[in-house]
Amino acid sequence: MLKATLQKVAFFTPHFNMSDISLNKYISDSGFCSRREADRYIEECRVTINGKDAQKGNRVGIGDDVRIDGESIRKKKAPIYIAFNKPKGVTCTTDTKDKSNIIDFIGYKTRIFPIGRLDKLSDGLIFLTNDGDIVNKILRAGNGHEKEYIVTVEKPITTEFIQQMRNGVKILGTLTNPCFVKQEGEKKFRIILKQGLNRQIRRMSEELGYRVVTLTRIRIMNFTLKNILPGKWRYFTPNELSIIQDMLQNSSKTADGDGMGE
Asked: What is this structure's pTM?
């Protein structure tokens, strides 16, 4: 009787493949692009699963054929971690339809993608990788990883401007978090963010009546631009990778917003 009952329960229990994962995570884990860009590709109907158009929320498992623009997505090989000194004019996207995209500029031999973004008119430090997990940990705004910038504006800075930038400025319908800001020259200041709202520094400055002329990211966490010339890149050293893994070990993998904007 018990055997018959168990058989009956098994018959009516739906089958779930425990190896299935979300489509955007599958694409990110392959090293093709970040989850954010994967979602954009899905929305643009450029992703297929087994020959059929994919939709956000789809899950894939072993044996599924996932393609972007007809290119098959396969699991990545060894993880790659790069620190790049992005010059002005380069766009932080993997979309090769954008002629100024960061991927073609670097010309790396295998597929990588940027962690976060720097505005096309901004320059400085940005990471690239094929490791989707480290991307999500670094990007999550709640993880509070520091990004440091040197900014030049078009007119002399006032004490009031510095104070307002420190205390928070209302942009994009929210008040920015208090942050470190220090004047470095008549028209130049240093700012350290733990947020990463879209074009945050430019929007904050504009809200206070200042136009950003130059914006350079000089540090991400413990990484700086030291020994990286504009337009050049280098691999993380084993020691740097160990340090960053330690810093991220308690960070969430689930992104709640792009924490690596400017």
From this structure: 0.71
